[in-house]
Amino acid sequence: MPEARFNRVSSQRFLPAFRLIAVALCATAFLLPSAFAAKKEPAKKAAVSADGKRKTAAVPSRSVASADKSERVVRGGRNVVASIRQKNGKTVVAVQRRSIVRVAEMPARQSFGQLAGLHGTEDALDLKSSVALVIDQDTHEVLFSKNDHAVLPIASLTKLMTGLLISEAKLPSDELITITQDDVDTEKGSRSRLTVGSTLPRGELLHLALMSSENRAAHALGRTYPGGLATFVSVMNAKARMLGMKDTRYVEPTGLSSRNQSSAQDLALLVNAAYADATVRQLSTSPEYQVEVGNRVLQFNTTNRLVKSPDWDIGVQKTGYISEAGQCLVMQAKIAGRKLIMVFLDSAGKLSRIGDAERVRRWVEANHMLSPAAQQSVAAHIAG
Q1: DSSP state of 330
Q2: Is the pTM of this model over 0.85?
Q3: CB-based burial of residue 112 (10 Å sphere; 0-12 exposed, 13-18 middle, 19+ buried)?
Q4: Could you tell me the end-to-end alpha-carbon distance of the chain, in angstroms, rounded to an integer?
Q5: Which residues does residue 297 pair with via DSSP β-bridges, in sequence order?
Q6: Catalytic residue from among 167, 198, 213, 352
Q7: CA dihedral sign, ordered 197, 198, 201, 204
Q8: Is 159 a catalytic residue?
Q9: Strand (E) or helix (H) holding 340
Q10: Least confident of 93-102, 105-114, 176-185, 236-245
């Protein structure tokens, strides 16, 4: 019995020391950043007692108020806060470790034109497009050019050739075509409101491809061409050669592939040919269009905001974008009494191709108000 009493008394004597040692160890571990290098803590820790048990029981508000008075807060670096307080006769250490989310800015993927250093080319109009060409459609006079022989990806400008060939083929415009899994973009993962199984007449698919640059519509048009997709791509390249587009190559009908490439000189020839097709002219300059897909009515809009502008008289147009090509735009438009063909490739910003077109329009209106034929007529009138 004396021995038992001695042990009980000794344990009680050293109990406060054990508590202090436990608190010191907990505080040291929490306040040392290296202690947490291999372990992520949640935003808030549950209160932990000195004996290691998790405290989950609710505490009356009166006890909390009493405990808060003796609470000490210690910061262990910028992101760790530890509080030490007495609670129900026990020492409690609570730790909060703030989560830090660092967002790394990924550098924008450079276009082929940027990689080739074409954006370093200066021009009188300070255009944002690395490639530009402005030609009088009637006289073939070059009013403005910038890197016009550079061969670059052309993105959805490809659809202008797709639309021209479908129109020239005189295929039944009311023939129903169903979107299949083959039409889903696996190149860039782009989305479409034309879900697999959607069925539309060929004429409406052509409208959507030219007006709103609908990728699945364009692919379905090429896939259902007589002979299939491979034949259609061959016809695209044959047409390019026939038009004199020596630097042009097509591998598919949408423009999602960066291997569809051309130059501003070649694209001017394509715009001229597309303008001669009444169907392409009408559909490419349509501002908006609705289609019925099952029991739904879908609204589509033009990708070229200039189509709706009263300041522009556009005969045919097409826009395009993939990261490799940058922002692209081709148009035939009447400016200052002249029918002009304009090509803008590899523009750096989302709206900069539109800004480039506006700069060219103002420049032509200020410097080329009359066509050469009109100038000769005025000079002859004055001389007479």
Answers
A1: E
A2: no
A3: buried
A4: 142
A5: 292
A6: 213
A7: negative
A8: yes
A9: strand 338-347
A10: 93-102
Query: What gap in Å lies between CA 128 and CA 1, rounded to an integer?
Result: 97
What lies within 8 Å, CB to CB, of 91 at 6+ separation is 19, 22, 23, 49, 50, 84, 85
Q: What is the pLDDT of residues 308-336, one digit of tens each?
A: 999 999 999 999 999 999 999 999 999 99
Instruction: Name the residue with tokens 């508590």.
Output: 19
SS (H, E, C) 93-136: EEEEECCCCCCCCCCCCCCHHHHCCHHHCCCCCCCCEEEEEEEE
Structure tokens at 382: 């004055």
Query: What is the biggest distance separating any 2 CA atoms in the chain, rounded to whole angstroms?
Result: 142
Average pLDDT estimate for 151-179: 98
Q: How far apart are CA 111 and CA 361, in angstroms?
A: 26
Task: Give me the catalytic one of 159, 239, 318, 339.
Answer: 159
Q: What would the two tokens of residue 95 be?
A: 């730790």
130 is known as an active-site residue: no
Q: How confident is the model at residue 70 (pLDDT cuts 50, 70, 90)?
A: low
DSSP H or E stretch at residue 233:
helix 229-242
Which residue in the list 111, 129, 130, 156 is annotated as catalytic?
A: 156
Residues counted in the chain? 384
Looking at per-residue pLDDT, the higher value among 61 and 296 belongs to 296
Q: Enter the DSSP assignment of 74.
A: E
Backbone φ and ψ for 209, nearest 5 degrees, come out as: -65, -40
Q: How confident is the model at residue 92 (pLDDT cuts 50, 70, 90)?
A: low
Structural contact between residues 153 and 258, judged by C-beta atoms closer than 8 angstroms: yes
Please tell me which residue, 48 or 237, carries the higher pLDDT value: 237
pLDDT above 70: residue 362: yes
Nearest to 357 by CA among 321, 311, 323: 311
Token pair, residue 104, equals 């790394």
**Residue 188 a catalytic site member:** no
